[in-house]
Amino acid sequence: MARDLDKALADIVAIRSQIAAGTAFRGYGPATMAATGAVALTTAILQFWLLGDPTGEPLPFFLGWFIAAALSGLMIWIEMRARSRRHHSGLADAMIHQAAEQFLPAGIAGVLLAVVMWKFAAETLWLLPGLWQILVSLGIFASVRSLPRTVALAGAWYFVSGFAVVVLASQTHTLSPWTMGLPFVIGQSVMAAILYFASGDNDVED
């Protein structure tokens, strides 16, 4: 009896996961995406004012961007939970799990890459801003199947900007707040615009 109950519950979870996989995720809101772009711009401006030599001070440079990423992630997570409850009701948890599962590998890779480069190849840290942008693009591409297909444009932006930043930084091997800030300001603004036009007027009310 207990085994049958466990199997029934497992079947229910599987069915919910399949339904979630075929449902467009509406947990991301354009206003919050635009706000994360503002966080990136603010971080770049503060570092431009406060860090005289980011290359010579990589710890405060990358710590600032870790804080910006954590703040942006928290903003997205809070809104994602609230919007999912409204738009997906009973499927909310499955939809959130699916969204996190799609982007999490790229996020974890970004953190581990920073730690490994810091500890074992500090002279290559100038590569990290571009590599982070490439990883963000891969996370976005992984999420395309549950979001408006036009978000691929934002993924393409981060992919191109990541390689462009690597090429630019290779000339001087230096760190700059703007090679981090500007690509993310533009990329998050593109994401916000795509989500706004894809969801119509509903997001204005949300």
Q: Mind explaining what this structure looks like?
A:
By secondary structure, this protein is an all-alpha fold. About 80% of the residues lie in helices and about 0% in strands. The chain has helices at about 1-20, 30-50, 60-90, 90-120, 130-145, 150-170, 175-200, 200-205. The protein starts with a helix and ends with a helix.
Overview in brief:
By secondary structure, the chain is mainly α. The protein has helices at residues 2-21, 30-50, 58-88, 92-120, 128-143, 151-172, 177-199, 202-205.
Topology:
Layout: H1 2-21, H2 30-50, H3 58-88, H4 92-120, H5 128-143, H6 151-172, H7 177-199, H8 202-205
* Strands, count: 0
Q: Which regions are unreliable across 5 or more consecutive residues at pLDDT < 50? A: 5-24, 201-206
Order of helices and strands: HHHHHHHH
| Straight-line distance between termini | 45 Å
Q: Level of helix content?
A: over 70%
Which word captures the global form?
globular
Estimate the strand proportion.
under 5%
Largest sheet: none
List the quaternary state of the chains: single chain
